[in-house]
Amino acid sequence: MRPGRMRNITLMSALTGCTRLLAAAAMLLTLAACNTTTEIAALEEPTAAPITGQTNDPAPGFENVVAGSEEDFILNVGRRTYFTKDSSALDSVAMATLDKQAIWLNSNPRWLVKLQGFADDSGSASNMETLSQKRADAVMAYLVSKGVDANRLWAKGYGNDREVRDCTDRSCQVQNRRVVSNLRTERDAL
Prior knowledge:
Layout: H1 3-44, H2 70-77, E1 80-82, H3 92-107, E2 112-117, H4 125-145, E3 153-157, H5 170-173, E4 178-184
Parallel strand pairs: 2-3
Antiparallel strand pairs: 1-4, 2-4
């Protein structure tokens, strides 16, 4: 073998050895960074509750909802009560929702509730306002009948001013025929 060729092979071997060393150092730095990221994530993000496949599993991101909080009320009880067209009568589904609300409210007496009634656009503005007020009053009367202190509740009908969706489809309009139970820490204006 010629001396020049031998020098090139030795230089390539040395370069390959140096490249290997650099690659190993890069991998160690990468692993160290991953470990640090995992440690930081463990400190910043609470451990998720195990998912068991049951219908009452917590929704992802809501595993740590505090009992008695507004989030607890919205997620675990439900704050909307729906009505049939041109009616303020409570059906069995509405009463089931309100039964859950009453139990929760009686267990969490610090909360006040503003009952906001709404209607779809199937009549005049004044008729819809009257109907939405009757719906809010019906919800209030039912909650009071279940032991919720009337001084914690107030009702306001908004008619069709605050529709969820403006639509003509029946399945869409039902979303507008509702009373929303909004938790408050102090009484606000009607």
